[in-house]
Amino acid sequence: MRKKTILVIEDNELNRKLVKALLQRGPYNVLEAIDAEGGIQLAQEHKPDLILMDIQLPGMDGLSATRIIKEDPELKGTPVVALTSYAMDGDVEKAKKAGCDGYISKPINTRSFLDTIKNLLPDGHETESLLRKDAGGMNRILVVDDDPLNVKLLAAKLPQDQYEVIKAYSGKEAIEKAAAESLDLILLDIMMPGMDGYEVTRSLKSDPMTSDIPIILVTSLDGTEDKVKGLEAGADDFINKPFNTVELLSRVQSLIRLKQYREQLAARVQSKAVFEMAMGNPKAPEEKTVVPSVLLVEDNPNDARLIQEYLKGSSFRVELAKNGEEALTRAEKNKIDLILLDILLPGIDGLEVCRRLKESERTRDVQILMVSCLADLENKIKSLHLGADDFLLKPVNPHELKARVKALLKKKDSLDRLKGGYETLLHTAITDNLTGLDNCAYFKHFLELEIKRSQRHKYPLALIMMDIDDFKLLNDALGILAGTKF
User: Fold this and answer.
1) Domain annotation for the chain: domains and CATH numbers
2) What angle do CA 475, 478, 484 make, to 5 degrees?
3) Taking Cα atoms as reference points, which of 354, 348, 350 lies closest to residue 303?
4) What integer pLDDT is reported at residue 363 of this predicted model?
5) Model's pTM, two decimal places?
């Protein structure tokens, strides 16, 4: 069987090597070009089966190059996939208008990259859903209920321009579809004949292929014991019938974001490993374990003492603040991972504290679990609108409290590792480990850019390389480390 040929048009050497390393793990021949002009020429000469086109290219940009390729009678049937680090509103439409058949955002998800490429090749599947999905468009939600009317009603509450709804009418069918479909979320009824929602949840969470799919249990049961049973089975959230549409969509969006964080984190980890293999860089030092910090904001001493008792012996540190002003000050000055925030506080109430925390660049990733005796839906929805990550009613059940705190701390850890992993990967990619200076690949990348810029703007460019006579004597006398600091 003939190997497929894929043309990669990418001016960033590090990105190009990463993509090449991934493609060479599959059955593909790889052609490379560093600019649009060279890419078009290679495409005309070799007639590749697929073209991966960076949008942000020096000189002619990737979308202009795509238009030229699509106007060529011999190349117009060749799929072109847009690559970009700057995914913004309207970019998908621009890529489609230019003739792109797909759209992949950087950083590349290394787990799904080869599957995406396979589906985008001429003998693969249709690419429209891939283009929408990878650009953050349509998320796929499985709705499970033994009553077809309930499935229809629930599906109708999910905006059709944001979600693709897949339907199942039994626990067995739900498990089969979860394994066969690429899902972002499952809305799962509990009370079903045969396998109930708890059994389905346990089955899905025990299977590595489906364990990362968030599950919201949907039920008319309102007892705390039922919630705890669902959370212990592995469910990520709980919503009661009849449910408010705003609350439902808030829960759905929150869990889909959590899944995306986890996928991006996994992609970062795998990308780093593949990148190091391609570049020959040593692995970065292992990360140190940091004990999570939880801030309890509660003015009632009895409630504060009770919650602290429930959380005693956990693998995180719990601190206490008695009002909103103190909570804001601590969150700004210290590293806080999760805030248990009472709504009814003296001075600044919990809703205002939540709003300020989520608007601040420094504290917006802090997870907020609102805790209140107010059982009305208005405050619950208002909290979610302000950015709260979860909501818990008093009197607090210790099992439910621990389950929700554990889930939110996992989410915060994913966010922290995602950001930290990116910085570590970037530093490893561009830095020489011995000297701490920018490495040769980073230098060559920017030298190429400066040469292209000088040619484009027609101004002279000079490069000076200097050598220090007898520098070896310094290294021999004081050691290499002293020489690198000189």
Assistant:
1) 4-134 (3.40.50.2300), 139-243 (3.40.50.2300), 293-411 (3.40.50.2300), 440-485 (no CATH)
2) 55
3) 350
4) 92
5) 0.53
